Amino acid sequence: MAWITVPTTEFTVTQGEPKRYRTDTGAYRTFCSDCGTSLTYENDSRPGETDITTGSLDNPDSFAPTKDVFADEKLRWVPLV
């Protein structure tokens, strides 16, 4: 899954109210309350940062990937550049 990371202070949900879930590891994830689409991820180890699922954005083409994270966990058929 492709994510972008932004300062939490620069992120705003403009429509609807996402469901917020605290994971066993202490992270917060949000989901669309209507369809369940994963929206964001926040972790206390990175205060002030919000990760956003790129596919949930209105214009995901505006956010091309710049790095691979956890590349050793990728599926065999995923090409990395």
Description:
By secondary structure, this protein is mainly beta. The protein has a domain at 3-58. It contains no helices and five strands. A hairpin with a 6-residue loop joins β4 (38-42) and β5. The radius of gyration is 14 Å and the shape is globular.
Write the layout of secondary structure elements.
Layout: E1 3-7, E2 19-22, E3 28-31, E4 38-42, E5 49-53
Antiparallel strand pairs: 1-5, 2-3, 3-4, 4-5
Estimate what percentage of residues fall within beta strands. 25-35%
Q: Which structural class is indicated by helix and strand composition?
A: mainly beta
- Strand order across the biggest sheet? 1-5-4-3-2
Poorly predicted sequence stretches spanning 5 or more consecutive residues: none
Mean model confidence by pLDDT:
90
Please provide the count of β strands: 5
Q: Helical segment tally?
A: 0
- The Cα radius of gyration reads 14 Å
Distance N to C terminus? 16 Å
Q: In summary, what is this structure?
A:
By secondary structure, this protein is mainly β. The protein is 0% helix and 28% strand. 6% of the residues are buried.
Which structural traits does this protein have?
5-stranded antiparallel β-sheet, mainly beta
